[in-house]
Design goal:
Layout: H1 5-45, H2 47-70, H3 76-95, H4 98-112, H5 119-141
Length: 152
């Protein structure tokens, strides 16, 4: 079947290595998504932390824009437009539902990066029901009626 024993040896090494690397990739992606879900869950519970985070990011970006304008790399109109865009991005992030984002990131970690060797996907799967309940409660408090099929 194989022309040499060397080819068979390389295949015997390459196939398990590929599966090991794929499992590691899934695990790392799942761990990252789980961390994002936990971050949004914390922001859901402590909205002042979310505001402080995005306000500090905006302050850094505004300082960069001001420095670029002072160095002459941006015209005053461009600087004003860039700062307005940064403020709009901050405002969008602040009004985005942290409960929804937590659920989305938990779902991504649990379902998109599932693997038998992945403990983070299992942890995210355990967090999903609570995150979904928090999102439903938030929608109910806003007067939005939902059905099960709308949130899955």
């Amino acid at each position: 079947m194989f022309r040499t024993r060397g080819t068979a040896a390389w295949i015997a090494i390459a196939v398990p290595a590929f599966f090991l690397l794929a499992a590691a990739d899934l695990g790392l992606r799942s761990r990252g998504a789980l961390a994002r879900g936990e971050q949004h869950a914390r922001w859901r519970d402590y909205p002042a932390e979310k505001a402080a985070h995005f306000n500090s990011l905006f302050a850094l970006r505004a300082a960069e824009i001001t420095a670029e304008a002072a160095a002459g790399r941006l015209a005053p109109e461009q600087a004003a437009r860039a700062e307005a865009l940064a403020a709009a991005e901050r405002d969008l992030q602040l009004v985005e539902s942290s409960a929804k984002q937590a659920w989305l990131w938990y779902r991504t970690a649990a379902r998109e990066f599932r693997s038998p060797l992945n403990p983070w996907a299992a942890r995210a799967e355990k967090e999903l029901p609570a995150a979904l309940a928090a999102w439903r409660a938030e929608l109910r408090s806003r007067g939005v009626k939902t059905e099960d099929w709308m949130l899955e």
